[in-house]
Amino acid sequence: MPTYYEMAKAAILSLKERTGSSTQAIKSYIEANFDVDFKPHLLRSALKKAVDDERLLKVKASYKLSPAEKKPVKAPKPKAAAAKKPAAKKTTKKPAKKKTTTKKKAAPKKTTKKTTKKKTSKKTSKKK
Predict the structure, then answer these.
(1) 30 near 11, Cβ under 8 Å?
(2) Which residues face 62 on adjacent strands?
(3) Tens digits of residue pLDDT in 68-102
């Protein structure tokens, strides 16, 4: 028997609603596709826990899968096949020659001083 979270996840994936699936839609999907004695309080608690764990996103009154949950789980690769490949090939590497490079000296920077002239302005008061 799958958990309520797994059933809700299957419902959200199969309904493919853009704005997310409502609790009523998830409930009707579970009742139609799974042979379980449905208990709404268990579904609510599973959805609430999934939102807290950030496995589901709550959008208004609907639920969507988080981007991390949408990614399929990759099966681990067998390690025995990977270990055999390097042992079959034996080659010797020649040491690489070191290149000598000469560093160029940086040209000294020329500094120029800018002179600023102060403008003297006379304030004149208007007579009435």
Answers:
(1) yes
(2) 22, 59
(3) 877 765 555 556 555 555 555 566 666 666 666 66
Instruction: Please give the backbone phi and psi of residue 64, each rounded to the nearest 5 degrees, phi first.
Output: -125, 155
Amino acid occupying residue 6: E
How far apart, in whole angstroms, are the C-alpha atoms of residue 18 and residue 29?
17
Closest of 57, 24, 67 to residue 43, by C-alpha: 24
Tokens 């608690």 identify what position? 45
Which tens digit of pLDDT belongs to each residue from 27-73?
A: 999 999 999 899 999 999 999 999 999 899 999 999 998 888 777 65
Using DSSP, state whether 28 is helix, strand or coil: helix
User: Where does residue 113 fall: left (phi above 0), alpha (psi -120 to 50 degrees), or beta otherwise?
Assistant: beta
User: Which amino acid is residue 25, in one-letter code?
Assistant: A
What residue spans of the chain are helical by DSSP H? 4-15, 23-33, 40-52, 67-70, 79-88
Question: On the CB side of 28, how many CA atoms lie within 13 Å of its CA?
Answer: 5
DSSP type of residue 56: E
